[in-house]
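Project outcomes to date are best conveyed with an example. Our students and postdoctoral researchers have been running inverse folding experiments weekly, and each run begins with a structure described purely in tokens. The record below, which covers 978 residues, was selected by the lab manager from last quarter's runs and is presented without edits.
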């Protein structure tokens, strides 16, 4: 995207510099009251020369790409090889590796080369003291010297502005939050699939010496970056795509053709298949099909196949979206109904709400081109409202006005009109749709029922989608306590709303669905191929039982959007953006998914938001979107051969929004080694974290939060101890040694423990339930940002930040560490964790900065509107910079933002409650019951030393986890092709 350069606005008067004594001490005290500890002052540490004022200078030159690899490196097999003596500790994106040749498949035009022998990894030691403790009077660990997540993210992002990511030449992907253009060379891009270990140990014993899980993080419909080729859609007619007759794997670049092309050997199970006559092509002397370059399925790691009728469960049609809108008293009184109607209009038509007055009166024989809409081509929309009754709406363009039909039977709910009249083309029926949504808030202004009913309305909506499948988008503003007995929800929290360590059993009750009606309904939805998205807000922040309501969205592959403290002027923009994204993103319905792997491995466990009826069965989802992610872990049922690669294939069968039944396949390949030390050089930190986080979130209802946090800490200690024991060189006992590519692993685990999903202390059960389900469904990039937010200092932006450089890339400012020690007096900061965007303003912020950012008249924090949700459009340099940065963070694929709409939340120091949210996101500091980053490393070091000396005792949570894993492994000992 191109950003226009704004003219400079002259020189600001320089703000007086503060000595940082009295005022910062006061700020320390204030932040301490919020549960934040900035850490003690560092003896002998020189204070940095900081600038807390906005200053405009002459624009600097364009940013230079990170020069870790020569310019022009591409995926043609001619990249320079790693030179002997090169820095083994350099970041993976700063290394140029030998192009990876598969050990099974000969590459055309390339010479066969011996497998690369990885060098032993070099650990990153941190001096922690002799016994992992900091004695009184001893020098503290310098926080600036511990591994920094912002630095690793910024380096990778800068490098991939100028370089393409070749999927077979790079063994290790960059951080998951890195925007990059991937070139598919046969193995899927990391946005679709990330392995925890990209050089796989050949046995269970070797994997055990790493302490790491062997897993795969999948996001099958991930959004493509601008500049990437579209995923090809291939049609093999009634025969369908070629598949292995034994394991049913789909054709992929690593299947080997022999016997002149007549035999196709499966790369997963090794079974030799006879090539179908319709798919036959001869091979050249090197064993490669002569038509290989003309067949995308033999070149690309990710592709889609159109499938014949034998893959259909019902006739595929375009997606049906059914909006189910709450019109009860709470929804009307708090403006939620109006916000939903306005948001749906914006999602359907954007800002173009003009209609032709004669739409309804026009002669039926006169053909009129449909009005444009933002609904995906081939899809249709329908509308229902509910309180104690259900209201269906016929908005067909042939009607002069929308027609309402009421159903009051809650015992046996049904659709009052046929699906043919309920679902319409949004462009053709724009006039009636706009009229309906504009009138709904006024229609129910006087007819207000305090208690809504939900399950009967959902059953009526499902009956309308029973024959086609599709998606329900439901809003709800209060606890549904009306209706038949089994369908009612009650105040299960008994007014407490929180699950704390004092009541360890309470979280098990409040965080799981115990209502049989909700469980039955989600099963019916999955069977019919229907997904459900919820847009929820509780009355005055009260109890809504998100655990039960959101269970439907979780199991059908849908999503829950929850507005904990709904405020109409503040949250409407976010609701509008999330409604638009929920409609317009790439998605499908009636989805089935299966993961296959090489001989010697088997699927052990899936984690995510889906339905799986029995172990080994396919994953079933009523709907799936570009934001949907899941993880799968593998166990060994034999020993892998080091002469062969390990292969993995995910296959997603789904119906697109346009009504095509397709299979999307993503293939991943990795080398096999008999030395786990080699594996440690190719660990994907983000994939490991995603696997552990999703498994932890999946087990919470059956395990207490305290046990879950302890098991994560125990797992982290095990990984570090195993690395120290088996794979690192000799280091003094006072050093904590970390694997090179897992330097920030400890900080991410600390962020997970401090997140709303797992943190100790009081937390509303509704919000915790939502966050736990979000963690299970997040992709690797979104999860990484959730566990460690991106913080940008906007008071010290360079004049070129926020504008395009000479290559057309937006120059993003460097982010700062999530610690109070890095917060400058008089500063202004954007804090983005992918779920919310906080704009924090120090009480001594420069008035000129406020005027430049918000406009004339806003020279004081008191004058700002706390419900502001977007920046005004001004002709100032700073305003243009910040707006460009916000647009890039919101719209750029690969930045870590998933389905959550970006709207700013103002947090003025000492004035707004949102400041507590800002303080909570400073994950490197002590807050609540969790320690600071430095103290956390000290604690881990102590645990590692105790483990190495045999003095560490396993916690009950860790022992329980081991038993569970053992049982899971035994239960999973079934043929992987079942």
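After processing, the design step wrote out the following sequence:
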């Amino acid at each position: 995207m191109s950003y226009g350069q704004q003219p400079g606005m002259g020189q600001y008067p320089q703000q007086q510099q503060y000595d940082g004594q009295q005022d910062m001490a006061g700020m320390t005290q204030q932040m301490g009251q919020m549960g934040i500890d900035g850490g003690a002052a560092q003896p002998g540490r020189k204070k940095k020369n900081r600038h807390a004022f906005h200053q405009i200078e002459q624009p600097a030159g364009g940013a230079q790409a990170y020069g870790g690899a020569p310019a022009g490196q591409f995926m043609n097999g001619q990249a320079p090889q790693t030179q002997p003596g090169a820095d083994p500790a350099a970041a993976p994106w700063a290394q140029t590796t030998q192009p990876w040749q598969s050990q099974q498949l000969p590459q055309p035009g390339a010479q066969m080369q011996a497998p690369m022998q990885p060098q032993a990894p070099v650990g990153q030691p941190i001096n922690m003291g002799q016994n992992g403790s900091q004695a009184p009077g001893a020098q503290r660990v310098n926080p600036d010297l511990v591994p920094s997540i912002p630095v690793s993210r910024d380096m990778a992002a800068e490098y991939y502005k100028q370089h393409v990511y070749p999927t077979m030449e790079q063994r290790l992907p960059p951080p998951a939050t890195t925007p990059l253009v991937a070139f598919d060379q046969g193995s899927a891009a990391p946005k679709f699939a990330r392995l925890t270990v990209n050089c796989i140990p050949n046995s269970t014993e070797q994997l055990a010496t790493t302490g790491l899980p062997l897993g795969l993080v999948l996001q099958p419909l991930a959004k493509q970056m601008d500049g990437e080729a579209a995923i090809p859609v291939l049609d093999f007619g009634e025969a369908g795509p070629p598949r292995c007759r034994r394991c049913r794997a789909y054709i992929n670049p690593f299947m080997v053709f022999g016997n002149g092309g007549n035999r196709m050997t499966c790369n997963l199970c090794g079974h030799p298949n006879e090539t179908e006559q319709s798919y036959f092509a001869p091979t050249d002397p090197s064993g490669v099909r002569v038509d290989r370059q003309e067949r995308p399925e033999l070149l690309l790691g990710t592709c889609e196949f159109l499938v014949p009728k034998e893959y259909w469960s019902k006739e595929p049609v375009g997606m049906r979206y059914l909006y189910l809108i709450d019109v009860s008293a709470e929804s009307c009184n708090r403006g939620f109904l109006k916000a939903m109607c306005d948001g749906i209009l914006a999602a359907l038509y954007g800002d173009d709400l003009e209609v032709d007055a004669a739409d309804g009166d026009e002669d039926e024989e006169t053909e009129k081109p449909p009005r444009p809409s933002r609904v995906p081509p081939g899809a249709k929309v329908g509308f229902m409202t509910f309180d104690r009754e259900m209201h269906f709406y016929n908005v067909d363009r042939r009607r002069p006005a929308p027609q309402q039909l009421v159903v009051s039977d809650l015992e046996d709910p049904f659709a009052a009109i046929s699906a043919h009249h309920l679902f319409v083309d949004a462009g053709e029926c724009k006039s009636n749709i706009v009229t309906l949504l504009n009138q709904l808030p006024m229609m129910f202004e006087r007819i207000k029922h305090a208690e809504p009913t939900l399950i009967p309305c959902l059953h009526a909506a499902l009956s309308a989608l029973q024959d086609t499948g599709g998606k329900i988008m439901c809003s709800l503003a209060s606890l549904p306590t009306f209706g038949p007995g089994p369908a009612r929800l009650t105040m299960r929290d008994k007014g407490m709303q929180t699950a704390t360590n004092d009541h360890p059993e309470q979280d098990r009750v409040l965080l799981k669905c115990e209502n049989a009606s909700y469980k039955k309904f989600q099963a019916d939805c999955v069977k019919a191929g229907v997904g459900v998205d919820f847009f929820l807000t509780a009355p005055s922040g009260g109890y809504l039982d998100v655990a039960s309501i959101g269970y439907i969205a979780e199991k059908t592959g849908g999503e829950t959007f929850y507005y904990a403290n709904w405020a109409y002027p503040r949250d409407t923009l976010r609701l509008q953006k999330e409604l638009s994204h929920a409609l317009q993103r790439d998605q499908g319905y009636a989805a089935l998914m299966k993961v296959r792997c090489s001989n010697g491995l088997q699927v052990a466990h899936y984690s995510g938001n889906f339905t799986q009826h029995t172990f080994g069965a396919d994953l079933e989802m009523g709907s799936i979107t570009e934001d949907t992610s899941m993880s799968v872990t593998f166990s060994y049922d034999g020993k892998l051969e080091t002469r062969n690669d390990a292969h993995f294939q995910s296959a997603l069968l789904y119906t697109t929004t346009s009504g095509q039944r397709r299979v999307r396949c993503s293939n991943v390949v990795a080398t096999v080694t008999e030395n786990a030390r080699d594996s440690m050089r190719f660990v994907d930190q983000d994939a490991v974290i995603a696997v552990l986080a999703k498994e932890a979130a999946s087990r919470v209802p059956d395990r207490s939060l305290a046990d879950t946090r302890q098991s994560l800490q125990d797992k982290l200690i095990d990984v570090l101890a195993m690395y120290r024991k088996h794979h690192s060189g000799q280091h003094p006992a006072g050093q904590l040694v970390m694997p090179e590519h897992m330097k920030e692993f400890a900080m991410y685990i600390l962020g997970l423990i401090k997140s709303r999903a797992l943190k100790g202390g009081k937390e509303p059960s509704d919000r915790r339930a939502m966050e736990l389900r979000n963690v299970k469904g997040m992709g690797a990039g979104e999860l990484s940002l959730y566990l460690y937010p991106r913080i940008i200092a906007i008071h010290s932006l360079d004049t070129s930040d926020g504008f395009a450089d000479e290559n057309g890339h937006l120059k993003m400012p460097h982010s700062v560490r999530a610690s109070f020690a890095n917060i400058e007096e008089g500063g202004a900061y954007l804090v983005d964790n992918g779920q919310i965007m906080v704009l924090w303003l120090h009480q001594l912020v420069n008035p000129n900065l406020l005027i430049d950012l918000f406009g004339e008249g806003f020279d004081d924090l008191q004058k700002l509107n706390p419900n502001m949700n977007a920046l005004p459009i001004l002709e100032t340099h700073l305003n243009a910079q910040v707006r460009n940065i916000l647009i890039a963070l919101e719209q750029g694929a690969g930045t870590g933002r998933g389905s959550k709409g970006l709207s700013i939340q103002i947090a003025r120091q000492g004035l707004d409650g949102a400041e507590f949210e800002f303080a909570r996101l400073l994950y490197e500091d002590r807050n609540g019951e969790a320690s600071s980053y430095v103290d956390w490393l000290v604690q881990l070091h102590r645990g590692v030393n105790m483990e190495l000396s045999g003095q560490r005792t396993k916690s009950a949570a860790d022992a329980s986890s081991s038993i569970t894993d053992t049982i899971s492994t035994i239960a999973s000992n079934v043929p992987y092709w079942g």
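Residues 320-585 form a domain with the Rossmann fold fold (CATH 3.40.50.410). Confidence is low (pLDDT under 50) at residues 1-122, 135-139, 357-366, 959-978. The training component of this project remains on track.
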